[in-house]
Write a structure and sequence with these properties.
binds zinc ion, two-stranded antiparallel ribbon, 13% strand, Rossmann fold, alpha/beta, 241 residues, 4-stranded parallel sheet, single chain, 8 helices
């Protein structure tokens, strides 16, 4: 009996030691603030879980995100998971997702946000989730589309399928030096909907990582709305001011 207990204790010591060792080489860090996470925790520390600036847009038909589409495109509803804030936690998360290959950030935020939207009447009858496509060249370089990862997480929690129904055609040059009008004209030509039947008659949740001017999402929404009977809502990980 003593021997069994001793062996078990040794085994558990070894496990703790191995955990500590693997933590040394592959530290389990919070993806927003880089502090050590407790073993078995998720991708955010407790502090970030509470301090990340969530929006409550999903509760309101009209909100700062839907306002960006007024007079441009008819949305059913629109929401963003987080605001950008001075603390930089949201920026940090997006940086990890887009430039540090942390694909799990997209999926995990999608799951978090999906759990919230599942309870929101405005998003209850969504039929299909469609991510904003990346240019193929950019996707080859990055190896993945961050918006598609977010779509995957949302899909898992909302219990509705996701599909890359939109395609990106031409390359857009840097948007930064163009006027607002030029930017809108530029993106309008860029998206295609190869098979309108995929979205016909559906309530489509169009998703992207960040909304700034809304030009990209607007162009995508126009393409989707060209299919008969389609309705479009928008969800993003973050909203920039
Ligand atoms: Zn943290």
């Amino acid at each position: 009996m003593e021997t069994i207990r001793a062996t078990k204790k040794q085994a558990s010591n070894v496990r703790t030691w191995l955990d500590a060792l693997s933590n040394l080489f592959y530290p389990n860090l919070c993806l927003a603030c880089s502090k050590n996470l407790l073993p078995g925790g998720n991708f955010l520390c407790v502090s970030c879980t509470y301090k990340l600036p969530k929006t409550d847009f999903h509760l309101h038909q009209e909100n700062p995100l839907t306002e960006r589409f007024w007079g441009r495109v008819q949305l059913q509803a629109g929401t963003a998971c987080y605001h950008f804030s001075k603390s930089g936690r949201t920026q940090q998360l997006l940086h990890r997702l887009k430039y540090e290959g942390k694909k799990e950030v997209g999926i995990e935020i999608g799951k978090l946000h999906g759990s919230v939207l599942r309870e929101a009447p405005l998003f209850r009858d969504v039929d299909l989730i469609v991510p904003v496509p990346l240019h193929p060249k950019k996707q080859r370089l990055r190896g993945y589309n961050q918006s598609a990862l977010y779509a995957r997480g949302l899909s898992e929690r909302l219990g509705v399928p996701w599909q890359e129904a939109l395609k990106r055609t031409a390359y857009t040059d840097s948007q930064t030096r163009k006027s607002r009008m030029e930017r809108f004209a530029n993106v309008e030509k860029v998206f295609e909907l190869p098979s309108p039947d995929a979205v016909k008659g559906k309530h489509v949740l169009l998703v992207d990582d960040v909304i700034t001017t809304g030009a990209t999402l607007e162009a995508c929404a126009h393409r989707l709305l060209a299919a008969p009977g389609t309705r479009v809502s928008v969800a993003t990980i973050a909203i920039a001011n």
